[in-house]
Design goal:
The protein is mainly alpha-helical. The chain has a single domain, classed as Winged helix-like DNA-binding domain superfamily/Winged helix DNA-binding domain (Arc Repressor Mutant, subunit A). It is built from six helices and two strands. Helix 2 crosses helix 5. The protein is globular. The N and C termini lie close together (9 Å).
């Protein structure tokens, strides 16, 4: 598919900006909280509800064996619980535990506070308005990606 000349440079700049923002937000996390990998699993369970470990692996595109230790650590820390799958008694489901909800909420609030401080101290009123408009565009892009068929490469 052919795109206007500015599309690829814009995509590259957007990817780099979002990656940099995420990296900075992660770097400010307290050392005693859940790891980035744990937060990713917590967020997945929050969004999708209880999942079998194989479902977590599939969504994260990793082998189940590579998640085994992480999930055990999360269970030991009471961030998740395991329960029998009501549909298939041979499987267990991972469910977000109250401590996992608190950890996820605390991390979201911490990141939002960091962003709010940066926005308040570094952006003008006009720039804040442009940022709000850009957020709507980012939401539309996220939906377009969610709606698009998955392909190996373009």
């Amino acid at each position: 598919m052919s795109h206007p000349a500015d599309v690829l440079p814009t995509a590259i700049q957007l990817r780099a900006a979002v990656s940099g923002l995420q990296r900075e937000l992660r770097s400010r996390a307290p050392g005693d909280g859940p790891s980035t990998s744990q937060l990713t699993v917590l967020a997945l369970l929050h969004r999708l509800g209880p999942l079998p470990p194989s479902g977590v692996a599939r969504h994260e595109r990793v082998k189940l064996q590579s998640l085994t230790r992480l999930l055990a650590e999360m269970e030991a820390a009471a961030l998740v619980t395991r329960e029998p799958d009501p549909v298939d008694a041979r499987r267990t489901l991972l469910r977000l535990a109250p401590a996992g909800v608190r950890a996820l909420t605390d991390e979201a609030h911490r990141r939002e506070a960091s962003l709010a401080d940066a926005i308040a101290t570094r952006l003008t009123n006009a720039e804040r308005a442009r940022l709000r408009a850009a957020c709507s565009l980012l939401d539309r892009l996220a939906q377009a990606l969610a709606d698009a068929p998955t392909t190996a490469s373009h």
